[in-house]
Design brief:
Order of helices and strands: EHHEHHEHHEH
Number of helices: 7
Strand order of the largest sheet: 3-2-1-4
């Protein structure tokens, strides 16, 4: 079974929101199917839930979702059972990872996790995908 580090942008694709591109939904569906068929194990850094919550709240406020809708979407994402790692790097190390890989702070955690675990990275973020390719990380 392969380990896949899943980025929050892919998790949001599981919601099938109308404003998202069809390509995101298809990509997220393929990952969900692989997980359901026990072909992959989904993992993410400890910040995954906070990033998902931020995105849901931001979108919800912008689009006028009710609190119940936001909570329902949170439950959908949570149902995919992404295993969260609790490893934390000291701030200087975190910054160094981001600088070394030319990515944003959070993205450094996902990329580093994929490198350390020799895992596949699932993301649609162009910058993170490019950094993963430079680092020799397999993309889902």
């Amino acid at each position: 079974m392969k380990t896949v580090v899943v980025d929050p942008n892919v998790a949001l694709g599981w919601l099938l929101l109308e404003k998202d591109k069809e390509a995101l939904h298809q990509y997220a569906d393929r990952l969900a199917d692989a997980s359901a068929n026990e072909e992959v194990e989904l993992v993410a850094p400890y910040v995954f839930d906070a990033e998902c919550a931020y995105a849901l709240l931001k979108r919800g406020r912008a689009q006028g979702w009710t609190e119940d809708t936001i909570q329902a979407y949170a439950w959908v994402i949570d149902s995919y059972q992404v295993d969260l790692a609790d490893e934390r790097a000291p701030l200087p190390e975190h910054v160094e990872l981001a600088l070394d890989h030319h990515v944003q702070g959070y993205d450094a955690l996902y990329l580093d996790m994929a490198i350390e675990r020799k895992a596949v990275l699932a993301t649609t973020d162009k910058g993170l995908r490019a950094a993963a390719e430079r680092a020799g990380v397999e993309l889902f």
